[in-house]
Specification:
Blueprint lengths: L1 H8 L2 H5 L5 E3 L13 H10 L6 H16 L3 E5 L2 H14 L3 H6 L9 E5 L10 H6 L4 E5 L7 H5 L6 E7 L12 H9 L4 E5 L8 H4 L4 E5 L10 E5 L1 H9 L12 H16 L2 H19 L5 E7 L7 E7 L1 H4 L3 H9 L5 E3 L8 E4 L8 H18 L8 H11 L6
Parallel strand pairs: 1-11, 3-4, 3-5, 5-6, 6-7
Antiparallel strand pairs: 2-8, 7-8, 9-10, 10-12
The chain binds pyridoxal-5'-phosphate (PLP).
The site of pyridoxal-5'-phosphate has 13 residues, from helix 5.
């Protein structure tokens, strides 16, 4: 017992030889998502050795989800991605138990799923694949940078089962059909509107704007265990739940995830949003001051692209002056025994972001020190540190095949 207690205070990463990563890239599956809130950790730990009646636990989660989202009901699944698959499945099968067992064979059933071309994104896997897993047939609406209401309306026919709408920084940010219009058109024709709002803090807005079901990740901003949250109309949520007798079996969550989500949602109600915002702001200010007078560096605080209450520091690097490219700086920061992982999905534009929402107390200072260290090192370099981005990208793609080496 004492040994267990002693172990709990030790960083488990040291025990297993895992690098103690500092996450300034955001909530990333590849880094273990988010810091699970203490209330969820506690609930998970306490339920693990016990038996529970799972259908009641699911019902309890439904109540909690309903309370926070304003929906009639809710369901917890393995991930938001699983939520997309199961919601599409539910739209295809309804409550037909035999059809549920037959999926992904959709013979004789409505199975077309509409999605705007600008929403066909990847969040680590293609959103279309999450739809096809349920037997859904993708029907793209519009072109990547332009979709119109008439294109959606005229794509609906007697085979249309659902329409998926993605809210995310990943999607094309202009020329898309507003959710309200999208939902009005679909719902008037009996087409289920499934909104992927995996990373969005607002638990009510998308349902208010007409979603039949809004899907969230439990392990992102909420700080719950790896899970997905479905919130929506009662009969539709029941049909999603029923998928656990079919393709949902492989996407099931255990008692620990369900209770963990309940605890995380309850903690969300009492979360000190202003206090957390202030702490994030002070990290951003510290980094902005740290970088203020460094040659070739321009740092500005920018808002979240989908209006989540979250700012980031956009760090632009002029390689001539800074003597390092922004992608080489990102790689240098990620090396060593205190790896700092930045938000680097736009490095070809000459910038990365520092995201303060997943910091442990004090880590902002290590980030500042590492920035100074690597930028000073670059200043002293005889040549500009500049690798070929094109080759770097190809190497990155090839590396996945050598994962075990
Ligand atoms: C993260 C994300 C997902 C996937 O969520 P998981 O819960 O990790 O499956 C889906 N859609 C969008 C827009 C996301 O950002």
């Amino acid at each position: 017992m004492n040994e267990v207690k002693a172990n709990m205070t030790q960083d488990i990463r040291a025990q297993y030889g895992l690098r103690p990563v500092i996450n300034v890239s955001g909530t990333m599956t590849s880094l273990g998502a988010s810091i699970v809130v203490p209330a969820a950790v506690d609930a998970i730990t306490r339920v693990l050795p016990q038996f529970v009646e799972m259908s009641y636990l699911h019902k309890l989660a439904s109540k909690t989800i309903a309370e926070l989202t304003g929906a009639e009901a809710g369901f917890v699944t393995a991930s938001c991605s699983a939520g997309i698959t199961l919601a599409v499945a539910a739209a295809i099968t309804g409550s037909n138990l035999l059809a549920i067992e037959r999926l992904p064979d959709t013979g004789g059933l409505r199975n077309e799923v509409l999605i705007q071309a600008g929403h066909m994104v990847g969040y680590g896997a293609p959103v279309e694949q999450a739809i096809r897993l349920a037997g859904g047939k993708i029907v793209p609406v519009g072109q990547a940078t332009k979709a119109s209401a008439y294109q959606l309306e005229l794509s609906i026919n007697e085979r249309t089962a659902a329409a998926v709408y993605v809210v995310s920084h990943h999607v094309v940010d202009h020329g898309q059909i507003p959710l309200r219009t999208f939902a009005e058109i679909c719902r008037a024709r009996g087409v289920k509107v499934i909104v992927d709002a995996a990373s969005e803090y607002d638990l009510r807005k998308f349902l208010e704007e007409g979603a039949d079901v809004a899907l969230y990740s439990g392990h992102k901003f909420l700080g719950g265990p790896t899970s997905g949250i479905c919130a929506g109309e009662k009969a539709f949520i029941r049909d999603i739940y029923l998928q656990n007798r079919g393709i949902g079996r492989g996407m099931k969550v255990g008692k620990e995830s369900i209770i963990g989500v309940i605890a995380a949602l309850e903690a969300w109600k009492n979360r000190d949003h202003a206090g957390i915002r202030a702490r994030e702001q002070s990290a951003l200010d510290l980094w902005a001051e740290t970088l203020a007078d460094l040659p070739g560096i321009n740092a500005v605080i920018v808002p979240d692209p989908t209006d989540n209450p979250l700012d980031r520091l956009k760090v632009s690097v002029d390689p001539e002056e800074a003597r390092i490219t922004v992608w080489d700086l990102a790689v240098a920061l990620a090396a060593g025994d205190r790896p700092v992982i930045v938000r680097d999905h736009e490095v070809e534009h000459g910038h990365f972001y520092l995201d303060p929402c997943n910091l442990q107390p004090g880590e902002e200072h290590i980030v500042a020190d590492r920035l100074i260290e690597e930028l000073n090192r670059a200043q002293q370099s005889n040549e500009i540190i500049s690798s070929d981005l094109r080759l770097r990208l190809l190497e990155g793609e090839a590396a996945i095949l050598n994962w075990l080496d």
